[in-house]
Every structure is written in C-alpha cells, then in structure tokens.
Amino acid sequence: TCSEGLCEGRSASLIRDEVKADLLRYFRGAQQSLLDLAASHATLMVEIASGTRDALLRCRLPDSESVLERNAKCAKDWERQADEFVISARSAANMGESGNFFNKLLGSADDIVDDLEEAAFHFTLLPAESWQDRIHEPVVTLGNLLVQGAQEYLKALEAARYVHRGGLREDVQDFLESIHRISAI
C-alpha cells in the first residue's frame, strides 16, 4: 500500500489512512474468524444441552435406556468436534489481547462442553426406576436452564460480531441483553 501510494503520488496522510484501514480490515477479519470458531463451538454446546434435555424428557418411557445411550454417544461425538474447534482457535489466535481473550473464552466454554458430555454419560448409569417425579422434574428443569444458557451464549457471540466503536446501539443492546440473560439463568 505504501509503495503503490508513493508511486502514484498520493499524499503521506492518505497513505497512512489507507494502511490503517488495511490493518483494521486484517485484524477485524482475524477476530471474525475467531468468532466463527467460538460460535461453531457454542452451537455444539447447544446441541449437547438440547439432546440431553430431550433425552431426559423421555427417560420415563419404555425405551429410555436406549435413548439415554444414543444421546451419550452423540454428546461424545459433539464434544470431540468441539475440541477440534478449540484446537483450531488456539492455533489461529495471535498472542495478544484479542488472542488471549478468545483462548480464555473457548477454554471456559470447552470446560462446559466437557461437563455436559460427562453428564450425558452419567445419566446412562442411573437405573430406570430412579426417574420418579421427585428426581425427574428438577433434573429436567436444570436441563431447560442449561439449554437456555447455551442458547444465550450463542446469541451473545453472534451479537458480538456487530459490536464495535461507532456501531449501531441496537447491536450493543442485543449483546448486553444476552449477557444479562446468561447471568440471570
């Protein structure tokens, strides 16, 4: 950009502005790529939470053991895929403020995915007769909260794509509302 600008006789201030714009586009593009990976990871979190909640809703039916086992297998597969997104994000993240943030964010989110997958497995160990009302209803309620929290996390990541200096107030509002709902859940 500098050499082209000098060869074409552009002013130094215009060249500086062009370089700043190019750098901003580059860093914004890298941040968007990391947000893509985080959103893909969050989508798998939603899948594991939803699958487990749905399996719990069916756990008092005659085929409950096979439903819980299928869910645990799916959760394990999704957890493995989520690990791949974390590995990709770590290699894509430049060490710096933004890279460190995404590494911490995905590390914490991956702990949640690991815990959800482990919970899906542990539900397969319970005998069918243990799903009485006093156990079933609180566990399903917790499952609903986990799904809502995972969905709000995904919404927050999607809203974060549009939050930047000089951006629309509505985008910031959407992001902040998702964060507030996560805290409330």
Description of the molecule:
- This protein is mainly alpha-helical and 185 residues long.
- 82% of the residues lie in helices and 0% in strands.
- The protein contains 6 helices and no strands.
- Helix 5 (133-160) packs antiparallel against helix 6 (169-184).
- The protein is elongated.
- The model has no long low-confidence stretch (mean pLDDT 86).
Note the run of SSEs as H and E.
HHHHHH
Task: Please state the average pLDDT score.
Answer: 86
Count of DSSP strands:
0
Largest pleated sheet: none
Residue runs with pLDDT of under 50 for 5 or more positions: none
Number of helices: 6
- Tertiary shape: elongated
Strand percentage lies at under 5%
Output the radius of gyration: 22 Å
Distance between the termini: 49 Å
Q: How much helix is in the residues?
A: over 70%
Which structural class do you get from the secondary structure elements? mainly alpha
Offer a quick outline of the entry.
This protein has helices spanning 2-7, 12-57, 64-92, 97-123, 133-160, 169-184.
Characteristic key phrases:
elongated, mainly alpha, single chain
List the helices and strands and how they pair.
Blueprint lengths: L1 H6 L4 H46 L6 H29 L4 H27 L9 H28 L8 H16 L1
